[in-house]
Amino acid sequence: MQIEEKPPFDTPYEWIGGEDKVQQLVDRFYDLMDLEPGYKELRAAHGSTLADARQKLFWFLCGWLGGPDYYQDRFGHPRLRMRHMSFSIGIQERDQWVACMDQAMGETEVPEALRTRLKASFMNTADWMRNRGA
Question: Has the keyword Heme been applied to this entry (predicted)?
């Protein structure tokens, strides 16, 4: 049996560096989506503006990481899959979302051990959000 080492902080929110770091991560994620050709299908799924998506992801991630529940305070339970059913999400969109977030985590210097854990969680969630096969 292997005992997992205790993270250096009580929550991923504290570990990542709090609200300012979450905002930096979200901003870099959407900036990359706009800039990198490898994320063009993901970007296309977001419509003409990213402002609303930026704000909602920031609110969501703060609470999901163990910080303030901004999203839930405003909208109630996230119900992620239901709220994303109007978007066509397949393997390509899933993979682009995770790759874009992983790149953003790297560029905003999320600690490597946390980045590894978050990437696995993001992949599980992104795969669960798929609503078409390919």
Answer: yes
Residue 96 CB: number of other CB atoms within 10 A?
20
In three-state form (DSSP H/G/I as H, E/B as E, the rest C), the secondary structure along the chain is: CCCCCCCCCCCHHHHHCCHHHHHHHHHHHHHHHHHCHHHHHHHHCCCCCCHHHHHHHHHHHHHHCCCCCHHHHHHCCCCHHHHCCCCCCCHHHHHHHHHHHHHHHHHCCCCHHHHHHHHHHHHHHHHHHCCCCC
Backbone φ and ψ for 44, nearest 5 degrees, come out as -60, -35
Distance CA 13, CA 11 (A): 5
Can you list the domains of the chain with their CATH numbers? 16-129 (1.10.490.10)
pLDDT, tens digit (0-9, with 9 covering 90-100), for 107-129: 999 999 999 999 999 999 999 98
Contact between 104 and 117 (Cβ < 8 Å)? no
Q: pTM of the entire structure?
A: 0.88
